[in-house]
C-alpha cells in the first residue's frame, strides 16, 4: 500500500495534476513485466532483478510498437498477447 501511494504521489508530481484515470493500463504492464521476468502467475516465486528485466522487455516492445506506428488502442492487445505467450512458455517448461 505504501509503495502504491508513493507511486501515485510521484505520478501526480510528474504530470502536475491528479487524474483518476491517468495511469490506465499501467497495472497490466506491471503484471506483464513480472510474468516475463519469471514470476509464477499462480504465486510463490520470482525475483526482483528478473522483474526489472521483464520491465525492460515490455518497454522495448512498447517502443518498437510506437516506432512502427501501431495505434495506442492496439498496444494493450499486444501486451496481453505477451502475457499469454509468457504464461504458455512457462507452463510448457514446467511440464
Model description:
- The protein is mostly helical and 95 residues long.
- The chain has one domain (23-94).
- The protein is built from four helices and no strands.
- Helix 2 packs across helix 3 (48-67).
- The longest helix is centred in the middle third of the chain and has 20 residues, at 48-67.
- It is globular.
- It starts with a helix and ends with a helix.
- The model has no long low-confidence stretch (mean pLDDT 85).
Can you lay out the helices and strands and say which pair or pack?
Layout lengths: L1 H14 L10 H11 L11 H20 L7 H20 L1
Helix pairs in contact: 2-3, 2-4
Keywords:
4 helices, globular, 95 residues, mainly alpha, single chain
Structural category is: mainly alpha
Distance between the termini: 35 Å
How would you describe the oligomerization state of the chains in this entry?
single chain
Main β-sheet description: none
What is the total tally of β strands?
A: 0
Helix content: 55-70%
**Rg result:** 15 Å
Question: How do the SSEs run, as a string of H and E?
Answer: HHHH
Give the low-pLDDT segments: none
H/I helix tally: 4
Number of domains: 1
Shape call: globular
The pLDDT mean sits at 85
Strand portion, in percent? under 5%
Sum this structure up briefly.
The chain has 95 residues and is mostly helical. The chain has helices at residues 2-15, 26-36, 48-67, 75-94. It has one domain (23-94).
Amino acid at each position: 500500500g505504501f509503495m502504491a501511494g508513493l507511486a501515485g504521489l510521484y505520478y501526480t508530481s510528474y504530470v502536475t495534476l491528479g487524474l483518476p484515470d491517468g495511469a490506465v493500463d499501467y497495472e497490466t504492464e506491471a503484471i506483464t513485466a513480472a510474468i516475463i521476468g519469471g514470476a509464477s502467475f499462480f504465486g510463490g516465486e520470482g525475483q526482483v532483478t528478473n522483474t526489472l528485466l521483464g520491465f525492460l522487455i515490455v518497454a522495448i516492445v512498447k517502443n518498437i510498437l510506437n516506432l512502427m506506428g501501431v495505434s495506442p488502442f492496439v498496444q494493450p492487445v499486444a501486451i496481453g498477447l505477451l502475457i499469454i505467450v509468457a504464461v504458455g512458455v512457462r507452463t510448457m517448461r514446467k511440464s
